Amino acid sequence: MMGQSEASLSERFNAVQEGVSNAARESGRDPHDITTIVVTKFHDAAMVRELAALGVRDFGESRHQEARDKVAEVADSALTWHFVGQVQGKKARQIASYAHVIHSIDRESLVNTLESGERTTGCLIQINLTDDPSRGGVAPDALLSLAERVLEAPGLQLLGVMAVAPLGADPRRAFARVRGASEGLRALAPDAHWISTGMSGDYREAILEGATHLRIGTAITGNRPHAG
Ligand SMILES: *Cc1c(COP(=O)(O)O)cnc(C)c1O
Question: Does position 227 have pLDDT exceeding 80, yes or no?
Answer without folding.
Answer: no
